[in-house]
Amino acid sequence: MSNDVGLYSEMISARDGSFWGNLPQALSHLAVVTAALTIRQVVPPKALEGH
Question: What span, in angstroms and rounded, lies between the C-alpha atoms of 9 and 49?
Fold first, then answer.
């Protein structure tokens, strides 16, 4: 019962399958933070100055 991009709502109507509530974003946020931390580890500090 996911939407067209594979996301699931917090609640789904048993009657018609419509989404109720929010679409949880925690995993998307975790991916962004993980990417930022990886860049910080891989890229030399001088290259990150001003960003």
Answer: 39
Amino acid making up residue 41: Q
Amino acid in the structure at residue 6: G
Interval 2-28: pLDDT, tens:
778 777 787 888 999 888 877 777 777
Distance CA 7, CA 31 (A): 15
CA distance 48 to 51: 6
Residue whose C-alpha is closest to residue 19's, from 30, 29, 8, 33:
8
Q: Report which of 5, 32, 33, 29 is spatially closest to residue 19, judged by C-alpha positions.
A: 5
> What pTM did the predictor assign?
0.48
